[in-house]
Amino acid sequence: MAEVLLEAKAVAKHFGGVKALRDVSLTIRKGEIYGLIGPNGAGKTTFFNCMTGLYVPDGGGFTFAGAPLLADAPHRAAERGIARTFQNIRLFANMTALENVMVGRHVRTRAGVFGAMLLNAATREEEAAIRRRAVELLHYVDIAGRADDLAKNLSYGDQRRLEIARALATEPGLLCLDEPAAGMNATETAELRRLIDGIRRDGKTVLLIEHDVKLVMGLCDRVAVLDYGALLVEDAPAVVQKDQRVIEAYLGA
Amino acid sequence: MMKWLAPRSAIGIVLITAALIALPFVAALGGQAWVRIVNFAILYIFLALGLNIVVGYAGLLDLGYIAFYAVGAYTWALLASPHFGLHWPFWAILPIGAVIACFFGVLLGSPTLKLRGDYLAIVTLGFGEIVRIFLNNLNAPINVTNGPQGITLIDPVAIGSFRFSGGSEILGISLSGPQKYYFLLVALAIFVIIINLRLQHSRIGRAWQAIREDEIAAKAVGINTRNIKLLAFAMGASFGGIAGGIFSAMQGFVSPESFSLIESIMILAMVVLGGMGHIPGVILGAVLLTVLPEVLRYGVGPLQVAVFGKMLIDPESLRMLIFGLALVLVMRFKPAGLWPSPERKRELQGDA
Lengths: 253, 352
What we know:
Chain A is α/β, with parallel strands linked by helices. Chain A has helices at about 45-50, 75-80, 95-105, 115-120, 120-140, 155-170, 185-200, 215-220, 235-240, 245-250; strands at about 5-15, 20-30, 35, 60-65, 65-70, 80-85, 175-180, 205-210, 220-225, 230-235. Chain A is globular and about 60 Å long. Chain B has a two-stranded antiparallel ribbon. In chain B, strands 3-4 form a two-stranded antiparallel ribbon. In chain B, strand 1 and strand 2 form a beta hairpin. In chain B, helix 1 (about 10-30) crosses helix 2 and helix 1 runs antiparallel to helix 6 (about 175-200). Chain B is globular. At the A-B interface, helix 2, helix 3, helix 4, helix 5 and helix 6 of A face helix 6, helix 7, helix 8, helix 9 and helix 13 of B.
């Protein structure tokens, strides 16, 4: 069995009386595409936010790459190697596509204000490297032609790609995509599928939250199903598809 | 980088340099008062560029910026005047002023990290007033600031025995005090412009803009938003502190009334009118808002007398009237400022 990358142990989160997550435990193995599905309001995004430090869980915790993941600050999660995209795209709208990806390099670079003011050799070199890597990533997600356009002026599909490029710029061990196919047409979804497949082939682990069941079942190695904040099942797509509880959760019993 | 300086650069730079050298002599034709006005315009460019870091880049609405200017001014005044009998050299005081202002920047920044927009504006406004009121009242029990009377007989900037106040002759050209300060200010302004440009196109500058655009996304890509915001406050405040020191030395006198709320608002208006986050725009805003009121002051009075035979409207009230009207018109017709950055312009055209 492959090495465990991320382990969630009894993660709980409630908002007032609403129990958004009830002791969810799951493991993501290195190099796999792991799908997290469930009906609307099942707690998928809450789980994501707990993992990336936007929310502090009320119980349980995460272990990432062998060490506990402290839920103190979101930027720590990115430092540790967890990158994410957002369900409702969150780009830096008034910055160019290239700049958006360059911001993603922030966590892996060092130059401070004094470096910027003196513009010494080390800073210039780092800046050039940031730009090179950002251009590479724009090519990787196939939107290099739009490098100098403002992020807000990109088409919807390109914005999704840009967000993925920005997340990849942080050199994540685990890339978390929150409904990347939402609002996409069939062609765009097929292209997205090729992109995610490619990312996995290049050695990244992917956590995918998705509504598009066809995409999840075709792409993922393993799938977890959440319903009312509880984990129903965690298994291979073929098994999950036939699980009676899952069918009930989706169709209503 | 520096694209706006680069095109046809050689000729452009020569022309700009020639104009900058000629300016104090041309202004002096109208009297030394005009040289002083030009100096103040440059000082305000300095301040507006400092505030641009906080408001334009990081998107943090700061209405108390004048407080850092005050801190710098009083640092100079206390360390180089008979008030405490200290007469430290400028190369010691300016950095000290910058560091103390920077400290106050962090002091203001740390409790306001979670605030944005209007809420942040209110708190910073309060901070600016607190500093002014402290300066007004710190003459008892121990007389630190000399209260509302202010501090007088402040040392001018001096390098060795060369003093920037009073006239002197250099290379056969006689220069007045304000003219000498002019060249010092231009040198400092160029320094600040270069630093601003370099910051804008740096890792830190991008992080500021990212926070301005979307703070949650900025956190998610690993930006420590707390530190980066504090850095913006600290950098902006340091520039304010340096400008304050020069102001103090140039005037020879400081009192709390130079640091009222309206000054903060004027500097913010320079940034917004000119074009937030765009250096040439901010410079334009600072120049317009310093020079136009003076043109009004010297021009409108005599004009009214010439046309109507008597003074109908006091130039001072006309100034606020026109200023208000100008703000409304700019917000209505050029919401991104008079000279916005190319990206902002493109964005607005894209929407149209």
